Amino acid sequence: MDRRLKLRHFQCFIEVAQSNHLTDAAKSLNITQAAVSKTLTELEAIVGAKLLSRDRRGVSLTSQGELFFHYASAGLASLENGYEGLTGGPNTPQIELRIGVLPTVAARFMPSAIKQFSIDNMRPVNISLQTGYNHLLLDLLHSGKTDLAIARIGSPEMMRELEFTHLYSESLVLVARSDHALFELTGRSRLAEVAKYPFLLPPKDISIRPIVEQALITLGIGMPTTVIETISNTFGRAFLRGSDAVWMISYGVVVDYLNSGVLRLLTDPIENTKGPVGLIRREDQEVDVSMRQLTSILLQQTRHLRDAVN
């Protein structure tokens, strides 16, 4: 490794990558913004690659920056983890990680992320996972009952004093069991018949419901005559397999069933329903080594989704 690389280069780069702003990173590191800029310039010169892209909205990682971030954050987290584990010995206090996740996140990639974290982590830890819809997850975060939310970006009011780091974007899809009679029809003929069947939809008080209703209008379906409101993905998947119902739901909830052929798409993913999903935390929250390690894993394991259609 190049001897010009110092620990401060890694710490500065990781802080900027996680906060997406030079000013926030400078405040967290207790140095000036000019010092942050100088350190990043030195780092890019040493590694010979452009790691960060700057615009009016802040700072984002380039493709080379994402690769470097993965290894840099994992390496720094391992170093801090090992140091704290060694210095603390058997008396090291158990770390609490309280995480709120969307159902689609819980189904799509959270199991593999937690599995990897449990392999890499060297400290006593208790991970508490809570699933829920967006408004609940943001409320829990604001109230201090969770430390991290993996959710869709909320309204400006809901996002006040919160930081958002983008993971991927996801659309709503309309699905049914693979042998449904609707698949004997095509195009507009299929859409004309869809509303005759029972629909599974999120409840009216869920923030995504207006997006669902607008999507039904866009597709020319309108509100179906029979609606079953549920937030249970387990019920939804089981109910579809044994009935003629159709379901409008986030792609990630049903992706495994689509890949296995149990369910099929009735239409293409609905483009105007696509929304960003990311890591959300409080601006004033201190990020310890375990949370930094988990964040690094989540960013790496969703990297392929950032370029995916859904």
UniProtKB/TrEMBL annotation:
GO MF annotation: an example: DNA binding
Single GO biological process annotation from the record: 3,4-dihydroxybenzoate catabolic process
Gene3D superfamilies in the record: 3.40.190.290, Winged helix-like DNA-binding domain superfamily/Winged helix DNA-binding domain (1.10.10.10)
Ranges of residues in domain HTH lysR-type: 5-62
PROSITE patterns, alphabetized: HTH_LYSR
Entry superkingdom: Bacteria
Family: Belongs to the LysR transcriptional regulatory family.
Keywords: DNA-binding, Transcription, Transcription regulation
PANTHER family: HTH-TYPE TRANSCRIPTIONAL REGULATOR YBHD, NITROGEN ASSIMILATION TRANSCRIPTIONAL ACTIVATOR-RELATED
Protein name: Pca operon transcription factor PcaQ
Record's keyword annotation contains Transcription: yes
Alphabetical list of InterPro entries matching this protein: HTH-type_LysR_regulators, LysR_HTH_N, LysR_subst-bd, TF_PcaQ, WH-like_DNA-bd_sf, WH_DNA-bd_sf
GO CC annotation: cytosol
Annotated source species: Natronospirillum operosum
